[in-house]
Amino acid sequence: MSEQAERKQRILSGIQPTGTFTLGNYIGAVRNWSRLQEDFECLYMVADLHSLTVRQEPAELRRKSREAAAMLLAAGIDPAVSLLFVQSHVPAHAQLSWVLSCNTQFGELSRMTQFKDKSAKHADNVNAGLFTYPDLMAADILIYNADLVPVGVDQKQHLELARNVAQRFNNLYSPTFHLPEPYFGSTGAKIMSLQEPEKKMSKSDTNANSFILMTDDADTILRKCKRAVTDSDGVVRAGEDKPGVTNLMSIYSSLTGKSFETIEKEFEGQGYGAFKEAVAGSIIDAFRPIQAEYARILADKAYLDGVLRDGAAAASRMADRMLAKVYKKVGLLQL
Ligand code: TRP
After folding, report:
1. 203 noted as active-site residue
2. Which of 135, 154, 180, 220 could be bridged to 100 by S-S, CB 3.0 to 4.6 A?
3. Which residue's C-alpha comes closest to atom 10 of ligand 1?
4. CB burial class (10 A; 0-12, 13-18, 19+) of residue 109?
């Protein structure tokens, strides 16, 4: 087999350090990231530059960046196997994003639904970074020639833009960037709000009972599960007419590996009380070892910073090579 054929496909993904990860982040992204390490060459990034598109409290952003990295490690990302780094530690991302932005049209960026949503939400701060956000994300991906990008549906349009910009650049100059594909793989279910199960679980929800954080203690998890909205029919069964119960079943199924059918049988003839306790138990069991590891890593700043330093150095070597290629192609003088 040629070396090319043997090479594992490369995955890149990023997560913003704007808060503690939720159960939804865990089942939908973080947990899968650690699983992908076996089959792919993985690069994982704390996207701190993207967070600047919304006002951040500086000390808090710094702390959250470390916490995000610690949580990713605690959840199983192995720095001996994958690269874990902070986006701003690899300056080539921002440098490439400038070149890409000069090859992206105002109209294209104006059509991004996330830009429209976010500028409506933060009407007092519709900054240029919010507008060119997709070019930075494109740079994150294209600079490593990533084959696959695990993203949620909300980022699909940005990935599409990255592909279009890459294609355009390749046509205008010469083949440079690999066109990345979205990776949905065996991602877990989309986890909904515990209070309004029609909405995605989000840490920015004003009602703290609607989400579970990866740092919540056992009592809090139990309380939030017990308060979760269900219905008056009292039967543990999945269905479009039962969004609350279905969401709890998705959580339980994702964490225990049990099918919906098995779960329905398990709780046959029992009310929601026992079911909710079991759901809480599955979350507590999943988070217990991660929380212990998270506390240990956060307390060992030297270790954590060492991992991030090594990750950034290795990522920079790859990224700088691509940046030099691009700079040369577009005609920037190199001495
Ligand atoms: N924009 C992504 C989000 O908010 C985070 C992100 C930044 C990302 N760069 C990326 C995701 C590159 C995938 C690939 O969720």
Report:
1. yes
2. 135
3. 14
4. middle
